[in-house]
Amino acid sequence: MKYNFSFTGFTPDAGYAPFPASVPGNIQRDFLDANPGFLSDINFGQEHRKMRALEPYTWIYTTELAFERRPGEKLWFVTEGIDYIWDLALDGEVFYSHEGMFTRVELCLDDILGDKVIPGAKFDIIIHPHPMLHDEPKDRTQAAQCCKPPVSYEWDWHPRVIPSGIWDETYLETRDPGHIDFAEARYTLSEDLKNASVTFDVRCASAAAVTLYDPAGDKIAELPVENGKASVTVENVKLWWCRGLGEQNLYRWEAASSTDSASGTIGFRRTKLIMNKGAWNEPDGFPKSRSYPPAQIELNGVPVFAKGSNYVNQEIFPGIVTPEQYEETIRLATQANMNIFRCWGGSGIQKKAFYDLCDKYGMMLWVEFPLSCNNYYDSDHYLAILEQEGTAIIEKLRCHPSVVLWCGGNELFNNWSLMTDQHLALRLLNKLTYDLTPEIPYIMTSPLAGMKHGGYTFIDRTTGLDQFALFTRSKGTTYTEFGIPGITSAEEIRSMIPEDELFPPKPGGSWEDHHAFKAWGDDAWLCIGTLEKFGDISTLEAMVETSQWLQGVGYKAIFEEARRQKPYCSMAINWCWCEPWKCAVNNSLIGYRNIKKSGWYTVRDSLRDVVGTVRMTKFAWARGEEFFCEPWLLNDTLNPVSAQLSVSVTIEGKEYTLGTCALDAKSNENAQGTKFSFIIPVNIPDKTRMTVICRYTVDGTTDENRYEMLILD
């Protein structure tokens, strides 16, 4: 029997009254709810800065034990995650201490405390202050010797608000000898992917059995558990596929004893990381170095073009994220024709519902361990906690078919992190993933040689090129981060920026705190000079429209060009998908609480599994200039596709036809057409938008792909 906690929270470090504490949740969020005078709204203005006063505090969850215990039962404390350094105390005496937030902890209170465990006994969970490697600078480097996600120490899209507390399921449980302590299903697929040998590991002190059901819900096996194991061969398995390539077939199993049960799912699939086509030849020329490492995901023998986004935490306070929030954001990604999330290491690991839903919707997951942009140097203490947390993460996630790739962490081989593949932390994670999941590939970090991160603005800072020009000149095995900033809606801006700061945006104050200025250089993420050059910024609404237009057309340029570079290129994963609070400007495609930006729609169109596209070498064209473009048919399906394509340009309501062509794309391949061109009229106003339309007809159905380009002197 499970017993949920009813806690009161308080801090002994300040004169605040005790308050109700939610489970799961975060203690600082509960404090804000109970003390509305502390700040008005964490998403408004500069109110979030007040949270810094709470950083050195100790927090205590307190309650009286409430449970009923029948003869033969023992009382257990169970938690899926408490953040980050914490103690358990009974009647004021600490009996257990822990560091880490991803490891499941199960403690038999009767075995530890004996007859002290009685209803009404005072039970406390003590949360110590956040880990800080040093006092200054107050930035992400303070998290460089812990497994706490560094994002909360401040990032260019996340305020410095550091949560802690009971962020995942935590409860008391009475257990008898029939309790199932552990149950897991592992399998091996035959070489031809037709049959699977399944082994169930079931730990129970009494007799137990396992029942297996196929994706339709029909029983296909009922097995006794002997010496903790049960095995079966499943013939003619229905494979699990990512969105766009097939069905998300999930077999369900249930382990049961006379008094308890446990259940789970199996998605039969084989995932590999193989060499990109042509990558053995890179880098080109002598003197030679090693070839670029593999970056092509192969799923069930099929090379998959991974098109998706970098998933980051959806809330500042991870404990309050609900399954409904997870489902909405995953559904929006699949509706945008994505098939992968790169689960960025700086945000840590999510609750179980997230991974279950990705299994259901066919979203492949590239999962990073909680390392990002820091030098996680080799101290004994850090390595011990990393081994504990890394093991827990792998064991929690390894049975999800959506998890197709492990990664040590984000941007660790760059000059701001200064790590190499000789750091013990990355060698340790390599060992753990091999020992515990040899069937799931692992890479040390992203990017590796051949892989690309950036750029992050519409006009590249180094070259001055727009993204059409930049990416048609680029060549990468993957583009696993690239971003174009877009302002959120005017309504959202008004909900976060005080009226006296609202317009025009200026550095300093609330616009800067919400990442419009100095988030990544003085002008990012707003990039007001770019907006002024290409569009209208005379009002807030006009500025939002200009910004979101450029974000959409910029993302369209990169996603489509990356797809055109298939098969050498195997991934296009933008930075980023979502955001954890109200950002005035961010590279995200959906704003806080799943508000779609207009770029979501253009990306959705660009990522259609079969789509006609137009390659253009720049964004802005001049009056009287010869405009030229090249039609392509992109095909990510397993079927050959034939299409009729036509390309036209509309300027000030007049449509000019450039040409038509027939293209045949083989299974999972693209087809390239010949170039079209025309002379742009001279008698049109400056900053006139030019709509390029690619119409394509497949199997009698016509669709179109639109680009809002610019005529600019």
Please indicate the percent range of residues in DSSP E strands (runs of 2 or more): 25-35%
| Gross morphology | globular
CATH topology of the largest domain: Jelly Rolls
- Structural domains: how many: 4
**Share in helix:** 10-25%
**Chain-averaged pLDDT:** 97
CATH superfamily of the largest domain: Galactose-binding domain-like
Distance between the termini: 73 Å
Radius of gyration: 27 Å
Number of strands: 43
CATH architecture of the largest domain: Sandwich
* Major sheet summary line: 6 strands, antiparallel
Order the strands across the largest sheet as they lie in space.
3-2-4-10-7-8
Based on secondary structure, the structural category is alpha+beta
The CATH C-level name of the largest domain is: Mainly Beta
Poorly predicted ranges: none
How would you summarize this macromolecular structure in one to three sentences?
18% of the residues lie in helices and 31% in strands. A hairpin with a 2-residue loop joins strand 42 (688-698) and strand 43.
Features:
713 residues, alpha+beta, Jelly Rolls, Immunoglobulin-like, TIM Barrel, 4 domains, 6-stranded parallel sheet, 18% helix
